[in-house]
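Methods — Computational structure assignment.
A single polypeptide chain was analysed. Its primary sequence is given first, followed by the predicted tertiary structure written as structure tokens.
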Amino acid sequence: MQDRMRPLIAGNWKMNGTGAALEQIAKLKTLLEEAGNIESDVLVCPPATLLHRAAQSAEGSPIRIGGQDCHSNPNGAHTGDVSATMLFDAGASHVILGHSERRTDHGETSQAVNEKVQAALSAGLIPIVCVGETEAQRLDGTANQVVNEQLSTSLPDNFGKTRIIIAYEPVWAIGTGRTPTLDDIAQMHAHIRTLLVSRFGSTGENALLLYGGSVKPSNAEEILGTADVNGALVGGASLLANDFFSIIVAT
């Protein structure tokens, strides 16, 4: 039986927050200090405009800072884009890649995600690769096939040489307040685990599988207690320190 891995609770602020939002990181830092030893790792992924200041605010605490996306090239004529090297230089340790909002809003393909994963690894960042099906795909019974294809193409072969973090986010549950049943979550996480072990062996066995999609203080404990769920990728509830802290300690 697999030993319990130290969970990762990651907050994705998306396109939210100006300088005033850094108060929430300071507050979270205080809450974590008062709590003492916690049983999970903590990551906050603010907008790129706040990343460096967020890293400074989190200094001396267990909070790590991550990016929400990166370009596949380390530099060049790519107006408005941010490279993995730049994220690392600004203080990031992780980067979210392949989020469904990027795949939908910007037409990102799994091959594009693959190239970004390689760029992140080269820059010293830990990628969090997102996968998940739409409601129509779940209803027509192709959810597993969709996730298979996303994982197969999004993950480069050398991904197996580092710590693998996958976030399963059913697209229809993101920001809607709706969540799959615990059985549905467990089934998909077990499916992902099987795919990763088949491809990457022991590295796949030790991959962190996060669940994302309307995670909040009221449902965090039961979701995080589900088989093969090794943490959460939290959206709106990560914007307020008190709510995010409640999810962190739910592990």
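Note: Residues 54 and 212 are 22 Å apart (CA to CA).
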